[in-house]
User: Which sequence fits this backbone?
């Protein structure tokens, strides 16, 4: 890992300024206010604007809907996306997980239609993995797909389908042959979310995010929307799942490929860290600045070092340590600031728009999002330490 300072040439600096000005113009306060109100995790207008610039897949060729940028310039876009706090967990994030699978498993016109549409911001994908009674065991899928000529009839339900309310298709793991063993008999489909028989119900989380329960009642899906071979969906799923877990077939994804590598990725913890430093510099009711207290400076330094260490840890180990750091240090910040830290956004006396209360509340879910930390620990044991596969006791 190269931590040396990189000198940018004039062309790269000009490009960076262009990117920053573009985000300043497009990501308005209305976008942030909508996200605070809805927790949707994405803004369709911003997403479409990114697509018109070719910045959803900036390294893709222009003819494929990208911008033909080198990885460094693409990372500048990622940097500004984070700094401008663009909501992207539902839409941008999920679409970029699914599109590479379509490139791998589809051919011909349908692949061109879907991947070009995704790159241009015209089509949004979400993930249809988890089921209400399945927990983290993705292979326990009960939603059924029954073949009927050139169509499949799908019945069942999915849980935590974040972004389904704005999405066009759910990349869904469906049981197509219940007579086969658990990890077989599964097939991946792109299920159209506006098809007859699809019902989407909002589920609002403690962290202020909206996810969804999605119900399929005799939903007809053409076989052309099957992704990969019939009954081999578990293998098809692995590519997007590895990308979500920051893994490759060989091991953890290099840190340089992680989003926001040029700076600390913006997050509620980052924002609360900035806010608590600003709070510590302000005089209290007795005229004393908290930051002058060496004990407070030491605690702030410890929190910052914890976050930097966590952000520089790639793959599943980083996923675990980031969640644990987030949960621990948002609580430490609340403890440091005191009762005023629990005043929420929009209420009298809220510090920095209530970021401390929000970050502490949001942090609790980070041990679940994108695969629980327990799942990550199993991956660490098997992939990194070479331990035998975890099996439930009978």
Assistant:
């Amino acid at each position: 890992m190269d931590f040396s300072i990189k000198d940018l040439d004039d062309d790269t600096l000009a490009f960076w300024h262009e990117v920053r000005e573009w985000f300043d113009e497009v990501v308005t306060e209305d976008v942030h206010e909508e996200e605070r109100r809805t927790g949707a995790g994405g803004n369709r207008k911003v997403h479409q604007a990114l697509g018109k610039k070719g910045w959803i897949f900036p390294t893709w060729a222009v003819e494929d809907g990208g911008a033909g940028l080198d990885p460094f310039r693409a990372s500048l876009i990622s940097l500004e996306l984070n700094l401008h706090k663009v909501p992207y967990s539902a839409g941008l994030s999920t679409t970029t997980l699914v599109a590479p699978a379509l490139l791998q498993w589809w051919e011909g016109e349908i692949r061109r239609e879907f991947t070009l549409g995704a790159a241009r911001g015209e089509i949004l994908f979400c993930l249809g993995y988890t089921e209400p009674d399945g927990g983290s065991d993705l292979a326990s899928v009960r939603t059924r797909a029954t073949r009927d000529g050139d169509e499949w009839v799908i019945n069942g339900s999915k849980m935590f389908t974040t972004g389904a309310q704005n999405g066009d298709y759910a990349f869904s793991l469906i049981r197509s042959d219940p007579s086969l063993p658990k990890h077989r008999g599964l097939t991946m489909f792109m299920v159209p979310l506006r098809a007859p028989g699809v019902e989407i119900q909002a589920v609002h989380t403690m962290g202020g995010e909206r996810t969804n329960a999605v119900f399929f009642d005799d939903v007809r899906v053409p076989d052309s929307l099957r992704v990969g071979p019939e009954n081999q969906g578990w293998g098809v799923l692995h590519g997007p799942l590895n990308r979500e877990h920051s893994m490759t077939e060989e091991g953890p994804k290099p840190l340089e490929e992680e989003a926001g590598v040029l700076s600390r990725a913006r997050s509620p913890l980052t924002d609360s860290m900035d806010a608590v430093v600003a709070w510590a510099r302000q005089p209290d009711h007795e005229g004393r600045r908290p930051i002058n207290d060496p004990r407070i400076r030491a605690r702030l330094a410890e929190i910052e070092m914890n976050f930097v260490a966590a952000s520089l840890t790639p793959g599943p180990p980083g996923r675990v340590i980031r969640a644990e750091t987030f949960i621990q240090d948002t609580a430490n910040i609340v403890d440091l600031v005191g009762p005023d830290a629990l005043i929420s956004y929009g209420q009298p006396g809220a510090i920095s728009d209530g970021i401390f209360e929000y970050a502490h509340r949001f942090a609790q879910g980070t041990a679940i999002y994108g695969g629980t930390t327990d799942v990550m620990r199993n991956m660490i044991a098997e992939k990194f330490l070479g331990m035998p596969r975890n099996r439930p006791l009978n």
Remarks:
- The domain at 255-384 is CATH 1.20.140.10 (Butyryl-CoA Dehydrogenase, subunit A; domain 3).
- Residues 255-264 have pLDDT under 50 and may be disordered.
- The chain has three domains: 10-88, 125-232, 255-384.
